[in-house]
Write a structure and sequence with these properties.
- By secondary structure, this protein is α/β, with parallel strands linked by helices.
- 38% of the residues lie in helices and 15% in strands.
- A 7-stranded mixed sheet has the order 2-8-7-6-5-3-4, sandwiched between helices. Strands 11-12-15-14 form a 4-stranded antiparallel sheet. It has a two-stranded parallel ribbon with strand order 1-13.
- Strand 11 and strand 12 form a beta hairpin.
- Helix 3 packs parallel to helix 9, helix 4 runs parallel beside helix 5 and helix 10 packs parallel to helix 12.
- It binds pyridoxal-5'-phosphate (PLP).
Length: 403
């Protein structure tokens, strides 16, 4: 009989979205007439279709695969085609981040790399994760039984924790703009984390999946806009939210060539080589048509086309934010993020507010408690929905919650 990795048995059951679905279906059973009236503002998935130039590029890639002369099998490097890596490096330089094409690896999305990157680090590390957080960071470290400490994100610090200089961590997860809170680090806040990492000889795993939603000038689009980050950070990015690739699957991870740490015998080990070795053994690259589609995102035409979708979501976020402004409800996000993270009114708990909103306004969101203990008393709404429904949800919130 094989022994099991019993760390898996200690993981939280994936209660959050199951629980939400259960409560909605019970409500519909009890109130069948309201079924078509329910507005779902809880999903973390996009709803607008791919940009036309992306669709064309994927088709063209597929057609090339059907012709002997242009057929592509395994990719030589498995790290992504140069045409795509060069396009991404060009994008980084457009906002002043110093990233070379050779430092970029194309992935099938940010979730895989966020979860798998822990493979190249030892199990004795102390892991620092913000609370609340995207559950992948916690789960992937619990799976190997690592020690996790949390940085509290609260109303008091605007859900952007600063490093606590009195604690030591080896691996730090940061996500900005953040899921679920929508809060984003300014240049100076992120610099504090980079300085902390350098002082602690720690590595920062920086999830920039929502970079494309940034609107404010003092919010960096990449950790590599911060001095010193090339010596301590790995950046993980995705086209899922940027360009609607949740069903197409493509992302990229940047490891600076000088990023290195010492092994126990004192040898300098380069992180890009270790990660390359891991991926070389367990990952065979992203399909050619998908990489063609991804490269189209970075063309001037592609940038224009995805901007239309991003503006649509940003306008939804503005509609929800202004409803909360009118109501005088505290929230973070909505500015540099598709997420709005609001304080449940009248001291209600996350699930209590979930039920209150479902019962009295037929609006569904995500209870903050599902993302960590500091999420209790908070609630996430997303701007990935339909415009009409977002407007209607904002009206219902105003009506229900007006004092
Ligand atoms: C959606 C999301 C991702 C992207 O995941 P993909 O695997 O690229 O679809 C990464 N990080 C966070 C925090 C997310 O919310």
């Amino acid at each position: 009989m094989p022994a099991l990795n019993e760390n898996y048995l200690k993981l939280e059951k994936n209660y959050l979205f199951i629980n939400i679905a259960k409560r909605i279906s019970k409500y519909i059973t009890d109130h069948p007439e309201s079924k078509s009236n329910i507005i779902r503002m809880g999903i973390g998935d996009v709803t607008l279709p791919l940009a036309p130039c992306v669709v064309e590029a994927v088709k063209r890639g597929a057609e090339e695969m059907g012709v002997k002369e242009t057929f592509k099998g395994y990719e030589d490097s498995g790290t992504g085609y140069d045409f795509l890596k060069n396009a991404i490096a060009g994008y980084y330089s457009s906002f002043g981040a110093d990233v070379k094409a050779s430092e970029i690896r194309i992935s099938d999305g940010a979730k895989s790399d966020c979860g798998n990157i822990v493979d190249i680090f030892g199990d004795s590390n102390t892991i620092l994760i913000t609370d609340p957080a995207y559950p992948v960071y916690v789960d992937s470290n619990l799976m190997s039984g690592r020690k996790i400490i949390y940085a509290d994100c609260t109303k008091e610090n605007g859900f952007c924790a600063a490093p606590d200089q009195s604690v030591h961590a080896d691996i730090i997860y940061l996500c900005s703009p953040n899921n679920p809170t929508g809060a984003a680090f300014t240049f100076s806040q992120l610099k504090e984390w980079v300085d902390y990492a350098l002082r602690n000889e720690a590595v920062i795993i920086y999830d920039a999946a929502y970079e494309a939603f940034i609107t404010e000038d003092d919010v960096p689009r990449s950790i590599f806009c911060i001095e010193g980050a090339r010596k301590c950070a790995i950046e993980i990015c995705s086209l899922s939210k940027t360009a609607g690739f949740t069903g197409l699957r493509c992302g990229y991870t940047v490891i600076p060539e000088e990023l290195s740490f010492r092994s126990s015998d004192g040898t300098e080990v380069f992180i890009s080589q270790l990660w390359g070795r891991r991926q070389g053994s367990k990952f065979n690259g992203v399909s050619y048509p998908v990489q063609c589609g991804a490269a189209a995102v970075f063309t001037p035409e592609g940038r224009e086309q995805i901007k239309v979708n991003l503006e649509y979501y940003k306008e939804n976020a503005r509609i929800l934010s202004s409803a909360l402004d009118e109501l005088g409800i505290f929230y973070t996000g909505g500015k540099n993020s598709p997420y709005i993270w609001l304080e449940c009114p009248d001291g209600m708990g996350s699930w209590e507010f979930f039920d209150y909103l479902l019962n009295n306004a037929n609006v569904v969101g995500t209870p903050g408690a599902g993302f960590g203990k500091n999420g209790e008393g908070f609630f996430r709404l997303t701007s990935f929905g339909d415009r009409e429904k977002t407007l209607e949800a904002a009206e219902r919130l105003k009506k229900l919650l007006a004092k």
